[in-house]
Amino acid sequence: MVTYRDAGVNLAAAQEAKRRIRHLAQTTFNAQVLSDIGSFGALFRPTFAGATDPVLVASADGVGTKLKIAFLTGIHHTVGYDLVAHCINDILVQGARPLFFLDYIATGRLAPGIVAAIVDGLARACRNFGCPLIGGETAEMPGFYGDGEYDIAGFIVGWVDRPHIIDGKTIRPGDVVLGLPSVGLHTNGYSLARKLFFETARYETDTQVEALGCTVAEELLKPHQCYLPALEPLLGSRQVKGLAHITGGGLLDNLPRILPAGCAVELRRGSWPILPVFSHLVALGQLPEEESHRVFNMGIGMALVVAAGDAEAVSQNLRARGYEVFTIGQIIAGDQTVRLT
Description:
By secondary structure, the chain is an alpha+beta fold. It folds into two domains: 9-164, CATH 3.30.1330.10; 176-340, PurM-like C-terminal domain (Phosphoribosyl-aminoimidazole Synthetase, Chain A, domain 2, Alpha-Beta Complex), CATH 3.90.650. The chain is built from eleven helices and twelve strands. It has helices at residues 11-26, 67-73, 79-92, 112-128, 190-200, 216-220, 228-231, 250-254, 276-285, 289-295, 311-320, and strands at residues 54-62, 97-107, 133-140, 150-161, 176-181, 208-209, 214-215, 240-245, 263-267, 300-306, 326-333, 338-340. The strands form three sheets. Strands 8-10-5-11-9-12 form a six-stranded mixed beta sheet. A hairpin with a 4-residue loop joins strand 6 (208-209) and strand 7. Helix 1 (11-26) runs parallel beside helix 4 (112-128). The longest helix has 17 residues, at 112-128. The model has no long low-confidence stretch (mean pLDDT 94). Its EC number is 6.3.3.1. This is Phosphoribosylformylglycinamidine cyclo-ligase. Residues 53-160 form the PurM-like N-terminal domain. It is found in: Cytoplasm.
């Protein structure tokens, strides 16, 4: 007799993983969640207090090859946090606040402890940023993923009142570009970073690198910053004309996504601190400036476009609440490109 377990699927492990996930997810629930984990679908009753024309904003993303660092180190409780933070930032750029989050975890052999660690990171971020984890999927797929490997994806739904949508349409030459700092690579550029650290420099994950002030693993597992706490008080002010989450494509490819026709961005070199990890990677790979600013965030995780007359007030608002902000450039007449000056 051949069983499902003989084929590589452990139903008992799946049930144990679901039990752990249910407990962690419940810690993120609020009064708008109307169903428990385990239903075929999740029930959520949104409230849009004070909104005149609420609009849903949805996004999906993953963590990319940062997961390889989790595999190498056995540290799995940070990548879930990264996923939630990344997804919140992606809808934040349109002025949206999160409503709820769903996850997808796929692996070759389901290990309840690893799944629970991943979901612990998801739940921690969801609690921190008021975004209930209301459901998801855990798939055991033997023969599809290598031993000890998995992939994760996140799905987020948020909302914005239509009059307060941030879409970049009012951006004009003369506007100012502000930058909020990143804490490291966030979740982008890891394929190149792994090649430079592990193949070019021949580091191990536990190698202490003086230039970084920590081990390679500690640097590469630094969390993806979530900018909702910094920016939420500004969302209804109409002072922010455009927001760009600096992810894959870096400053050079993400800023043009919010520019209207006839506008370009001029970024000033040296106007923000380049984090040591980026300086070290550039030196290891002898990377051209354009390549480094297209692959990595180079120390800026979120960019804001504001009118010149609002730049000081917005900066003071952020600094008064304990957030760093840098004036990194300006909008000029052009063809929706970015140049460094």
